[in-house]
Amino acid sequence: IIHKNEEEGAVLAFLTSQLEVEWACENFSDASAVVLPMHGKLSHVEQSRVFKSYPGKRKIIFCTNMAETSLTIKEVKYVVDSGLAKESRFVPSSGLNVLKVNWISQSSANQRAGRAGRTGAGKCYRLYSEADFSMMDVHQEPEIRKVHLGTAVLRILALGVKDARKFEFVDAPNPEAISMAVKNLEQLGAVKHRLNCFELTDTGRYLVKLGIEPRLGKIMLDCFDVGLRKEGVVLAAVMANSSSIFCRVGTDEEKHKADLQKVRLCHRDGDLFTLLAVYKKWEDGHDNRNMWCWQNSINAKTMRRCQETISELENCLKHELNIIIPSYWRWNPEAPTVHDKDLKRIILSSLTGNLAMFLGHERFGYQVISTGQVVNLHPSSSLLNYGIKPEWVVFTEILSVPNQYLVCVTAVDHDALYTIHPVSFIQHLEEQKLQIKVISGLGTNLLRRFCGKYGQNQQKIISRLKEDCRDDRITVEINFQNNEVVLFATEQNMEKVFCTVNSALKCEGKILRNECLERNLFPGRPGSSPIALFGSGAEIKHLELGGRYLTVEVLHQNAHDIDDKELIFLVDSIVSGVANFHKSTGSFRIASDGIKWGKFTFLKPENAEDAVSKLNGIEFNGSSLKLVPVCTSDNRGLPFPAVRAKLCWPRRYSSGRALVTCASGEAEFVVNDCFALGIGGRYIKCRVSTKYENCVFAEGIPMHVTEPELYDAFRSTTARRILNIRLLRVKGNAIASPSVSTCEEELVREISPFMPNKSFPGQNFRVEVFPPEENDSLTRATITFDGSLHREAARALDHLEGHFLPCCQPWQIIQCNHVFHSTLSCPVRVYNVISQEVASLLESFQSQKGVSYNFEKTENGIFRLKLTANATKTIADLRRPLEILMKGKTINHPDLTLSAVQLLLSRDGVAHLKSIEQETGTYIMYDRQSLNIKVFGHQEQMAAAEVKLVHALRQLLEKKPLEICLRGHNLPPDLMKKTVENFGVDLEGFNKEMPEIKVELHQHRHLLKVWGSKEDKRRVERMIFELASFKHSSLVQLASENVGGKEDNQRVDYSEPSEDACPICLCEIEDPFRLESCGHMFCLACLMDQCESAMKSHDGFPICCLKTGCKEPLLVVDLKHLLSNEKLEDLFRASLRAFVASRAGMYRFCPTPDCQSIYQVAAPDAETKPFSCGACYVEICTKCHFEYHPFISCEAYKEYKEDPDSTLLEWRKGKANVKSCPSCGYTIEKADGCNHVECRCGSHICWVCLENFRSSEECYGHLRSVHQSFVDIV
């Protein structure tokens, strides 16, 4: 506002910190203005820019409180005052120095206003109200009330004053501050309490002579005692100037570079050691120290101030205490020695009140022992560059901006704590600290199941643990990158937390290992096919041929509110053998006994029966559980595009009467026209109905006549309009009808001859007969045909029309409804890209006679289209183009490897996907389970989208950086520092070796990102690995990230160390795939080849991990990811053959060629039973495996099959009245009559001599002339 509306003149805006100043400078952009920062960490050159003139542009200066009194800028005419300033203040109640943003005083506000218009009229804009101004202190609080009083109290006691609280101050500080200062001096050993007064010790007298802050003096004196004179003086100087030694200013890139430069200088023991190391490097032989400071982002001005302070301290020590400070250093920052321990102990003794303990988790940070405050390390702390959290630290002050941070933090040794606190006190504190336990080697899918949707399962476990243990700090974290679960809890609660989480993980792992796919051996109605459970290792876990149920449906009144995991654990704890569970999706379906929650499938029928008997009626979540056995199928839908036809037949006898509805006023005319109407070989009587208006009542109708036949008879007799005919049937109970399954089997037999594959009708059509209700007069059925066989379907329906089933009575005539239906559906996003094509097709349907459709959007957001037509061919023709549109196209391309496809889940992948969809007007769907990519839209658009997507994923894969973690359980803690030292701040060392490579270091994540060719990426990885291996033995090992102490880092590892070579091809892993059960890595192509080999050879089951020594089977979830649905079906069939072959003749396939059904072989001593194949309808003897042969033993039938004439020869032995025809060989048995016998082949035979004649006359002539008789004479 000032810049746009006010006259010329510079603007000076007061902010609270360097961070705010830099943010304001970055976000204010205007071509007509020059924006300048002003704060204490800028170099002299940068600070001098605010005094320069910039003609034609307004100068806008964002500054901290330093511009309030220390400088005057002549051109400033406008001041913006925030009314706030950041200042360090000693808090007596906590004994800590806190850097915090506070309101300024009225005098400071006036001083700021005075910066405007020093050479002319000016304005001050105050960003606070007049009421706020009136509430400010009139004058700035005296400095003595804001600082630690240690030095002042020392001087007062040195003057002989026995009680500092009774000293007459000009501006008396808080008595509590004086008491705290005395307490701190007593801790430092500078004063001692004697006879109700305080006296100076020798240390105190030395500190008075030195004239510096007691803590700094104490550090120097203690360093002198261990021979570290040089180090003690330097440490006191850099500690006094710690806030401004490192310089982090400029753009984000410049700040990032400054951070990396600091990494090289950081020391593993914390910030004070880092500052000590910085000064040592600055002092060690640099010709141009200013340049060195610039190159390392060090404030040269502060370093000179430190040097001056050191010089003053050396002179003071020489003259006051007669101590000479040497010029050499005994402490070496590069090599850990006993001096490190001495320095940490000394720093601890001087900062006793500033001790903090790590609480075990980064979120909770450190607890300040003296106050109980929970504070985190400041982001600039050197310790963070090592990725560690030391168990115990000391700090100089707390920064509050507005979050609180520990500043200038130094790690301290655990054993040194006992010199300042009792052992019991330290142990009590450590009992409150969170311990860590890592459960590693877990599969990705196991972790996903444990986590649950949106982390719900994980949060439930955490909430329950917090409640049970009464500790809100308990945390369970999932690290998907390292496939591990990390537990945080106190030592007393850790066992309970571990047992709870480990139990949940084992339960999820058990579900994954036991998971089976329930497969029908052949397509058909539910319950008609035997069921196989296809499980881990691609093995058949159970083959159910007896029709017993394996699946139960769970019903519950509160199914919406059930905790799914609790229900699963309940079922698993009571009943063994859970193979799978499936929760109902979408809206919950309501049954008579409750709401359907879902289904459980068990490994054996006995397990399912146990579930029904043991779980039924159990109280759960406020209501009783209800379990119902169900017959399931594969849930894979029909194997063909469906066209449905409806048919029905009567259940009750016809009463011989019918009600004919006529057009208004035409009933009498119909009666006259249909006088003596004949139908079904009978005349029927017609009269006008007295009960129903415009109706004709017909009587005497034959029982077998159907409504369509009656309708045709009336229409052929009268020209009047017949609206409807209803055949009246007898009241009372319906006749005993055959079972639904019997009717279905009979319908299948009637239709099968019209289908191309007569032996396996389930592949072409399905029949469903609906159980009739008690009052139903008709039995109804639906036949679902393969839409491509519309001609065969039409012939089959014509055959059924007017006929009755063999299992029914002759009057139960089948009526076919010649209105056919077919339904298609697609999601909203698919419809959005094909809507124009669908609309165009639907518009073309309107012109076709007998065609109608219903198009609607369901509650679940699915578009459903129901087509209706009067012919099966019409339905098939209508459906075909729609199906092509809604089915989309699966993208199969050699460049779409697993690594490339998974990039679709990344941010860049999603962005590219959306961009391609917008450009091409298509919808691209990625199925995470099958790892398939489908594209929907117009043919040309889909082709363009496929090309663009493959190209984009190829580019993404090439551009995807290799991420190398520089911290972890097996890496040295200073690996990031060594990387920067070896390869430079700009990592130019990598570019010298590989010019085309790009490398970035993300400091806070300890992550190295590498862009380039595959060979270059691997080369960088090897270089880092070699660096870690080379340095590892010589580095001091510290606890891992987020770990306070070594004894806390417990690891439960369920996997073996990984290797780079694929166990199958023994080459470097290409397109890696991690197995769920054991975590071993393989090439994706190698695992697919292993499955393909099992399919072709029908051997190699169970399919197991081929890693040496590991025989863990591949789980179903692995097989789903590795194979398409078609390949998975092929693997199931191969496994089924291997299962049958391995059972030593216990099972056999149906002998019909290509039949997929299986039967169990009868035991040798068992009764012979037939096997009726539900796929091809043949009957087989389960003992001899020939056609079923009732009343004949298997041995006799087998002999007959081998020699069909053997039984005939046995039968005719010794029978004189049995002979063979001399012409055709047919066996003839003569019971009585003359000796002339005519064979079925037409020959006339003399029974006495078996001579053959062409006619009976010739035969009789022969009998008369040769044998003198037509018959045998007894």
TrEMBL record:
Any one Gene Ontology molecular-function term assigned to this protein's record: helicase activity
Source organism, top-level taxon: Eukaryota
Pfam families according to UniProt: Helicase_C (PF00271), IBR (PF01485), KH_DEAH11 (PF24471), KH_DEAH11_1st (PF24638), KH_DEAH11_2nd (PF24641), OB_NTP_bind (PF07717), RBD_DEAH11 (PF24475), Rcat_RNF216 (PF26200)
Keyword Transferase part of the UniProt annotation: yes
Start and end residues of each RING-type domain: 1058-1266, 1062-1104
Alphabetical UniProt keywords: ATP-binding, Helicase, Hydrolase, Metal-binding, Nucleotide-binding, Repeat, Transferase, Ubl conjugation pathway, Zinc, Zinc-finger
Domain called Helicase C-terminal: residue spans: 1-160
Transferase as UniProt keyword: yes
SUPFAM superfamilies noted in UniProt: P-loop containing nucleoside triphosphate hydrolases, RING/U-box, RNA-binding domain, RBD
Entry protein name: RBR-type E3 ubiquitin transferase
